[in-house]
Design goal:
131 residues, 5 helices
């Protein structure tokens, strides 16, 4: 794993930690956004490790991640689509007003799925130990 890839994964972990802190003080929208950002940075790790490129836009990261993990048995279908689905959390936190707030349960599920996504990326990018 390259140092750049490791930094993307470290950033993903920081977002998950922040998300749990936010959840603890009832900042549900922000906690769910943190789950998305964790997945975004983990997806960037995959992209960099497999292509040597850095993609910075949300749409670009989503589409490139899907392309690079197509038919990859290390990623379950629900993990592959989490990044695109979780973008909605970012949109709610950043742009919505009024009744679009997420519940603590929704934010908790987002963080759990974000953790699963980051873990799947880590497994996919960690070489197996020789037997």
């Amino acid at each position: 794993m390259t140092p750049e890839t490791a930094r993307f994964l470290q950033n993903a972990e920081k977002h998950l930690e922040r998300g749990h802190t936010m959840l603890g003080v009832h900042l549900n929208d922000d906690a769910a956004r943190a789950a998305y950002l964790a997945a975004f940075h983990a997806a960037q790790a995959v992209i960099f490790e497999r292509s040597g490129r850095v993609v910075k836009t949300h749409r670009g990261v989503q589409s490139e991640f899907l392309r690079l993990t197509k038919d990859d048995p290390l990623f379950k279908p629900d993990q592959r689509i989490f990044l695109s689905q979780a973008y909605d959390f970012k949109a709610v936190a950043d742009y919505e007003t009024g009744s679009a707030e997420l519940s603590a349960e929704q934010a908790t599920v987002a963080l759990e799925r974000g953790r699963g996504f980051v873990n799947a990326v880590r497994r996919a990018l960690t070489p197996l130990e020789p037997a």
